[in-house]
Amino acid sequence: MSNKILIVTGEASGDLHGGLLTQELKKLDPDLEIYAVGSKKMEASGAKIIFESTQLAIFGFTEIFSRLGLIRKAFDEIKKFIYKEKPSLVVLIDYPGFNIRLARFINEQRIPVIYYISPQIWAWNKGRINVLKKLVTKMIVVFPFEEDIYKNAGVNVEFVGHPLLDLVKSKLSKEETMKKFGFNANNPIIGLLPGSRSDEIDKLLPIMVDVCTKVKKNIPESQFFICWANNLNIKIIEDKLKKLDFPISIISGWNYELISISTLVMVASGTATLETAILETPMVILGKVSFFTSILARILIKIPYLGLPNVLAQKMIVPELLQGNAKTKKIFPVVSEIIRDENTRKEMKNNLIEIRGKLGVSGAANRAALSILKELKNNV
Question: Which of 38, 110, 269, 363 is the most exposed place for a label (fewest CB within 10 A)?
Fold first, then answer.
């Protein structure tokens, strides 16, 4: 067997976690050869990219049809790589629709599979746990309740904590951030996090901007910014701000600093909600997908909440305004109340502090890397 590992991701959050994991693996074993279906974070950490994962990012169930050609291409490239290079072990990160199918092929090649960042079987398609039990050598999970789910099903599992605890930190003090970006600490600061996919931005950013327009009219001293995911063309953002008569700063690369100083953020459902929770910043979670995707979601998703902070709390601690409720007339009253009411913000912050405590302790990526190297040693 070779000293090669293949890591497969499918979205920006997977690339982020894959990058952290690659860093830790390289620290522990500098001679390890790491290949990846990934993007900039993984490449910067030392992985050799065999397929660019940004091409695979999908928003919603139905959007998969427009990417079928690229998905097939990625699958074929991975198969060619495995036939040629014969890696000792494959690490799959989230992206279950693709990765579970890939795990079947990898099993046929008698290569161990480690799954890091579990599919959300607790939210939908619980039957997948029986499939995973047959395909996965080890499941490495980042939420504590997932460990019990897999243990009860007889799956080899380890809870390592959440890797975002090491990453989500501000490099500047709040005062330094205010000064750097010209914000006034005495006035409300509202952040817009519309997501890292163009589909998300198309659906959510116009609504967020419309809410900001109403906030500006009612609370004139309010200040606004957008966290721009630099994997996207900035023109996508700029085009949606052309008609505004007040400024919304577009800033990339300082997300955690900006979220930390915010009175409130409007955030697309997904990893960013957990990042915001770790920074203990009040938020409103927004989500909007195609009509057909929303129908499928109602049928398939078996939990009452979509936002990760609410899932972890097992109650509604931050507002979720999804689909038909993701409208200015529904969002504005909620946003306005949070901005104006300090007690509401304080209660939300206290709940978010509790959520942070449920994510374990720092060092998750290192513990995951140690677990992977242990499996690698057992199988060489």
Answer: 110
